[in-house]
Amino acid sequence: MKEQILSDRIIVNPKVMVGKPTIRGLRITVEQILKALANGVSTQKLLEDYPELESEDIQAVLSYAAELVSEEQVFPVGV
User: Fold this and answer.
1) Within a 13 Å sphere around the CA of 62, how many CA atoms are in the beta-carbon half?
2) CA-to-CA distance for 11 and 48, rounded, in angstroms?
3) Could you read off the pLDDT of 21-60 as tens digits, one per residue?
4) pLDDT value for 7
5) Which terminus of the chain has a lower count of CB atoms within 10 Å, N or C?
């Protein structure tokens, strides 16, 4: 299976990070960045901690997550 380009910066390659979406094929996953942001880590701190990241990468992660959520359907139980 070959790599799949999900956006201009989000890549899925089964040989990198067990096929999780990564940023530009680096060993930094979308999940890592989202969890860090959710836990209050600032964009500036992420850029310092991961010098290979660019601010456009973080924006791509947020856009990717927003796109996934926009396609999600939630059905209330017991309403």
Assistant:
1) 9
2) 22
3) 999 989 999 999 999 999 999 999 999 999 999 999 999 9
4) 82
5) C
Residue found under tokens 């791509």: 60
Asked whether 24 and 11 are in contact (CB, 8 A), the reply is: yes
Output the pTM of the full model: 0.85
Beta pairing partners, 40: none
Q: In what order do the strands lie in the sheet with 10-12?
A: 4-5, 10-12, 22-23
The tokens for 21 are 């979406």
Q: Please give the helix or strand (H or E) that residue 29 lies within, else none.
A: none
Q: Which two tokens stand for residue 54?
A: 């660019």
Report the amino acid identity of residue 19: G
- Which domains are assigned to the chain? 4-58 (1.10.10.10)
